[in-house]
Amino acid sequence: MAAGPRATADTAPAAGAGEVEGEHIKPFTPEKAKEIIMSLQQPAIFCNMAVDWPAQHWTAEHLSEVLHGKQIRFRMGMKRTDTVPQFETTCGYVEATLEEFLTWNCDRSPLSGPFRDYDHSKFWAYADYKYFVSLFDDKTDIFEGVIWSDFGFPGRNGRESTLWIGSMGAHTPCHLDSYGCNLVFQVQGRKRWHLFPPEDTPFLYPTRIPYEESSVFSKINVVNPDLKRFPRFCKARRHMVTLNPGQVLFVPRHWWHYVESIDPVTVSINSWIELEEDHQARVEEAITRILVCALKTAEDPHNTRAWLNPTEVEETSHEVNCRYLNRAVSALFDYYRTSKVVEIQALRTNREHMKKEGLNVHNHMEMEQTGGQDLSVGVVKQEAASLFGPDLVPVILTSEELPSKTGSIFEGDGKDFVGEDGEHSGKLHCTKRQRMMSKSEDAIVEQNASNSNMAPSQTLISTDDLLDCLLNPQVTRIVAQLLIQGRSLWF
């Protein structure tokens, strides 16, 4: 598919632009950068904020020298374009050094060694979710090479960061993160990001199988969707951008994302920034953990690897999970007390409204959380949007055209679009949180109906079907709210 008109982020000022007496002047102060991050409701790319970070030089080759001989786990996936997502439970795994990975990645498929069973022309490799504190446990000075304090988070560095190294085609299935917002620094190579706003959750067909705490997966392969099985996906609003080396992508809370490496070697560093909303999200995740583990273990107690993501290594007993839930609830109320906020009174008010409006809790919660702050939040959003330019590039809605069967990517319409290389060439597309909420319940019903539109031999309801309904993010939010309201009677 031919690319439409687009500008590129390559035209952003060079690393030395704006320097005074040899010192680089960054486009935003730490305070202003944090203000933008905490108020902006759509993804955006920060340019020229990390040009002096030591981490900008951390190519895979450099890291192979730093980590000489250290064994790293690589996830191995197929270079194919079918309609089924490649979840981590279906991938192979290899323990190898970065040197061995780089040798294999040069298309020199070895006859021996850890990659011997994986033809480079057919497979990709991904060292993903590598926490600095585990990877560089004996080289803690390297933490200082990542300077998130430039974004207004004092003391935050590599210690709170994660490393990602992949070959071309390596990708993360479409998912949303339950906790925090995300800052991603691209070091080497390019990655293409497909993002969808939280309001589009019903169109992404969420599932908690495979189960991983803090990750809600989509059943859809968003680069090659099966629209017969998932027809509502055509209503999802895709935002797409290619992240170049030196740029930092901001991903707001609960934005869905599918990330793929489009160069021979890619290196990224990210950090999840904690938010106040995480306190309730941890209660929701604890509820999810109890239900998934109880039902899936009862179904097959000897095959947890079929549904438990490889990243989940903790014990899954019901007793342990219940303790986890109680700790999450206690932590939430500790937060209420110490922050001296009015959430308890708000919860009691919510309970009175529930009596009047039955179980229509979700819409009320959305209005409760946003209604009283619309004016002030709207002003902040406008202020953040006014800062868009060469150093803060918004990621804009792309066209609705689907990719061809050859795997072509979505292209922009040339109007309201951030090109693949990140440059804004049109007006700001503003996502309004309330836009889809009034239709959310209907969307869930239609989603479940479309899932059951199968041949008679496939109509038996499975445990996973039940979990998809019980653990729909909207349902879990309601359950957590009811649980918290019940506990608030003691205060």
Automatic annotation (TrEMBL):
Domain JmjC, first and last residues per copy: 122-288
Keywords: Cytoplasm
Subunit structure: Interacts with CRYAB and HSPB1.
InterPro entries assigned to the protein according to its UniProt record, in alphabetical order: Cupin_8, HSPB1-associated_protein_1, JmjC_dom
Record-linked PROSITE patterns: JMJC
Protein name (record): HSPB1-associated protein 1
Role: May play a role in cellular stress response.
Gene Ontology, cellular component aspect: cytoplasm
Subcellular location: Cytoplasm
Pfam entry (one): Cupin_8
Major localization class: cytoplasm
Gene3D superfamilies in UniProt: Cupin
Compositionally biased tracts (Low complexity): 1-18
Annotated region described as Disordered, given as residue ranges: 1-25
